[in-house]
């Protein structure tokens, strides 16, 4: 099975403009993401709508493709990149451009999801460590079936543990945090980008609910590795500290 990894990267960002080009340990953030992914996947591209990002990637020896600035989501940008590259890969992996500490084992776990022919889309989940994190609406939760496929994603605490104090819930159910790394069979990626927004997606503001609501099967691989995404300049400062012990 052939895999390709595409890293969507925009210059414009409300909370951190120019984030992909911010320096982290002497290298642009986008370069660190690219190098981590390249440890596992041979065919890696950055998909961007900005000349500065495009040239930065090609200057460090990476591959990049220019895409439209008008996409509604990273998934749409991903599909345009696939079309422009003309790849015949079986599976397309979408890696966020602000995840410089993504671990090779996480990408490998995502790839192994496709050993199961029923997998159409794959993503990652990580067990929560405390109930305060579970209660955070910015950390979507996943409920999976007995075969490891997603039943639902929510910003709310799911499931509800009846008859127990909320502080005790984590000892009664293994709540799972969604990690926003995705992989799609190539034809499935094309199909999902043609779907209109769904009622569940609009309610929770979670794009993956559009796919579930339309009957697509999302396999969830588990990881115990904590990474640091970069959304703000403060995150970048934390990332500098994290980098000192990162291997």
Low-confidence stretches: none
* Radius of gyration, CA atoms, in whole angstroms: 18 Å
Reported for the largest beta sheet, the result is: 9 strands, mixed
End-to-end separation: 28 Å
Helix content: 25-40%
Q: Which overall shape is indicated by the principal axes computed on the Cα atoms?
A: globular
Strand content: 15-25%
Total number of helices: 9
Number of strands: 11
Order of helices and strands: EEEHEHEHEHEHEEEHHHEH
SS-based structural class? Answer: alpha/beta
Please state the average pLDDT score: 94
Write the layout of secondary structure elements.
Layout: E1 3-9, E2 23-24, E3 27-28, H1 29-38, E4 44-48, H2 51-59, E5 64-66, H3 74-85, E6 91-94, H4 104-112, E7 121-127, H5 131-134, E8 141-144, E9 150-154, E10 176-185, H6 186-193, H7 199-204, H8 208-213, E11 218-222, H9 233-243
Helix pairs in contact: 3-6
What does the model show?
The protein contains nine helices and eleven strands. The protein has 247 residues and is α/β, with parallel strands linked by helices. Strands 1, 4, 5, 6, 7, 8, 9, 10 and 11 form a nine-stranded mixed beta sheet that branches. Helix 2 links the parallel strand 4 (44-48) and strand 5 (64-66). Helix 3 (74-85) crosses helix 6 (186-193). The model has no long low-confidence stretch (mean pLDDT 94).
Gist of the model:
Helices cover 30% and strands 22% of the residues.
Summary tags:
single chain; 247 residues; alpha/beta; 9 helices; globular
